[in-house]
Design a protein that fits this description.
By secondary structure, the chain is an alpha/beta fold. It contains 12 helices and 10 strands. A hairpin with a 2-residue loop joins strand 8 and strand 9. Bound molecules: adenosine-5'-diphosphate (ADP) and magnesium ion.
């Protein structure tokens, strides 16, 4: 068994910074010496685009090194064993790798859904529930990875259910707005349901004989990552504060009790914030455009990347430093909560 930890970044709501956080956190963990593989499990391939740029996406179109093609032996019944993916090595960031996405990955969703619900009776599908886990484990071993960060699509798909069930930990990226509170409400129902389905699969006799074993996992909650809000005097502005309060209230009153019932929480001593907030990441403002242009996190931008001077440059450098500290703390927290050595 490898020691690699899989962390799912999940919210079925889109636009809450799942992809951005996977990239930024992956980069920060790698800069602290951890080997990290980021998985682009969203058919929209935003992470792949963010990391490789459009040029890279073009190059990828005739390249089999992506999550979907790697799984094709299992999903298209080719009698060959799944091979690890040759990951993309991120420029100028040692230790950071990407398992690229594929726009057709969602095509496997229906078959996987059947396998996850009908495998009691359908022996032909027995290798599918454990296939993604096998691919990720094999790839982690090839790279001697410490962390696998899984960027998921904004949906309640069977693929997402599978990714969630095979993860050791999960975090919920969210934003302080009405729709995110609604999303948290449905996650309070869905995540425990997914875990119960996982227990069924873990105990399913037919799956015991599968080539790709379904893992015995209880995904543990690391906390909410709240992002994309404006601040004044280091505090969220009034409009955002109201939704922060609602998220915190909902988390404490509904979400946490629902997870606790299924043992999906870590020991309480791991949570240093009483509202289970893992990080609060304010709006990147104009820095995001430079980050996207240079395929880098905001905190890794250099003076040359910015092309600014005078007080504009001084102000940008101050913000970059703040974001660096913030993501450094987030990475330290992740290492602490996953019992990794800093
Ligand atoms: N802290 C932030 N400040 C400003 N813009 C952000 C921030 N985080 C993400 N974004 C932008 O918001 C959009 C959605 O983010 P993304 O990471 O793609 O979300 P998701 O993966 O949840 O759909 C992207 O255009 C991204 O650049
Ligand atoms: Mg995304």
């Amino acid at each position: 068994m490898s020691n690699c930890k899989k962390i799912a970044f999940f919210n079925h709501k889109g636009g809450v910074s799942k992809t951005t956080t996977v990239f930024n956190l992956g980069w920060m963990l790698a800069s602290k010496g951890k080997k990290v593989i980021m998985i682009d499990a969203d058919s929209q391939c935003n992470l792949t685009g963010m990391v490789m740029g459009f040029k890279g996406l073009d190059e990828l179109s005739d390249n089999k090194n992506n999550i979907k093609d790697a799984l094709s032996y299992a999903f298209e019944s080719v009698p060959r064993v799944i091979e690890p993916v040759e990951c993309f090595e991120i420029d100028n960031r040692k230790n950071l790798y990407l398992m690229p996405g594929n726009i057709k990955f969602a095509e496997y969703d229906i078959t996987l859904g059947m396998a996850q619900t009908l495998s009691d009776t359908m022996i032909t599908l027995q290798n599918l529930p454990g296939a993604i886990n096998y691919l990720l484990d094999k790839t982690a071993k090839k790279y001697d990875a410490d962390y696998i960060l899984i960027d998921m699509s904004p949906s309640l798909s069977s693929i997402n259910q599978n990714l969630f069930m095979i993860s050791d930990y999960f975090t919920i990226p969210t934003a302080p707005d009405y729709f995110s509170v609604m999303a948290l409400e449905s996650l309070s129902n869905i995540l425990p349901k997914w875990y119960k389905q996982s227990l069924k699969l873990q105990n399913n006799e037919i799956l015991q004989d599968a080539v790709y074993k379904f893992p015995n996992k209880t995904p543990k909650f690391l906390g909410n990552i709240i992002q994309q809000f404006n601040v004044r005097n280091n505090q969220p502005t009034r409009g955002f504060k109201k939704w922060f309060d609602k998220i915190n209230e909902y988390t404490n009153d509904k979400f946490i009790p629902a997870l606790k019932k299924e043992s999906m929480l870590l020991d309480s001593s791991y949570y240093i914030d009483k509202n289970y907030i893992l990080s609060e990441i304010k709006n990147f403002n104009s820095l995001i455009t430079y980050a996207q242009e240079h395929n880098k996190p905001v905190f890794a931008l250099t003076k040359d990347n910015l092309g600014q001077s005078g007080h504009i440059l001084t102000s940008s450098e101050g913000s970059i430093e703040n974001f660096r500290e913030l993501f450094s703390n987030l990475a330290d927290n992740i290492m602490r909560m996953t019992d990794d050595k800093c």
